[in-house]
Amino acid sequence: MKVSTWKLGVTLFISLALVLLLAACGSSEESSTEEEGSSGGEEAATEESAEESSTDEEASSNAELEETYTVVSDTSFVPFEFQDENGEYTGFDIELIKAISEEAGFEIELETTNFDGIIPGLQTGQFDIAIAGISITEERKQVIDYSDPYYESGLHIGVAADNDEIQGLEDLEGKTVATRLGSTSSAFIKENIESATPNEYEQLDQAYLAVENGSADAILYDAPNVSYYIKTAGEGKLKVVGDLYQAENYGIAITKGKEELVTAINDALASLKENGKYDEIYEEWFGSKPE
């Protein structure tokens, strides 16, 4: 009887030990599983947080650009901007800004004004962007921002076809020289041609007509425009004389404080030059690829 009791005790002790051992193993495995789950959850949460942060940053970057910008251009600066026979605005600048806006991902609303109203309009926020053969100058940089240069220009002299007296810049001294109001050519006349009188016109056709009817001795203005006019409406009436003066670059003008827009336009312009679209537009309006 005593032996049976002893055996029973040993059996119960072993059974209890096994139960405790199994319980401990179960607790350890459960704890390990929980730790792994917790670790995996933290990693997943970290990854989700990083993805959300990246998405937020991308959304923020895209949100910096507005959906639509107001673009102002000139009314009669052929072949850069002018009205065609259907009354639609076209030209090198117009086609270029359309391609830039498409590449950059924003819409444009086109408005037109006289050239001398463009810079003031950008300063007051009436316009966001301006493209109108606008020369890049240090003075203008004080009040507006510019894109990277997109066209290299200069100044040409145009005179009546039968005028043999004026052969170059020095022959304009003391003469009446037609040009456009608010242009860099007007400043050039005042600063570089002694005793010359600049006749400034709001509309370019008025400046050319002044030379044709004799009320001005010559016109000094942007070379591509002078050359284009003489090949078209001024054929047989005017001619180009002298050299190309004051080489200058055109830039797209932008209201100050829109750094994200400047960056977007520059990136789009670079892409168009890289993929050949810029050359295509240039060739359409000037007959050859840019040098």
Automatic annotation (TrEMBL):
A GO CC term assigned to this protein in UniProt: membrane
Domain Ionotropic glutamate receptor C-terminal: 68-288
Biased composition (Acidic residues): 44-66
PROSITE patterns documented for this protein: PROKAR_LIPOPROTEIN
Example GO molecular function: ligand-gated monoatomic ion channel activity
SUPFAM superfamilies: Periplasmic binding protein-like II
Record's signal peptide: 1-23
Keywords: Lipoprotein, Palmitate, Signal
Superkingdom of this protein's organism: Bacteria
Region (Disordered): 29-66
Solute-binding protein family 3/N-terminal domain segment(s): 68-289
PANTHER family assigned to the protein according to its UniProt record, in alphabetical order: GLUTAMINE-BINDING PERIPLASMIC PROTEIN, MEMBRANE-BOUND LYTIC MUREIN TRANSGLYCOSYLASE F
Identification of the protein by name: Glutamine ABC transporter substrate-binding protein
Species this chain originates from: Oceanobacillus halophilus
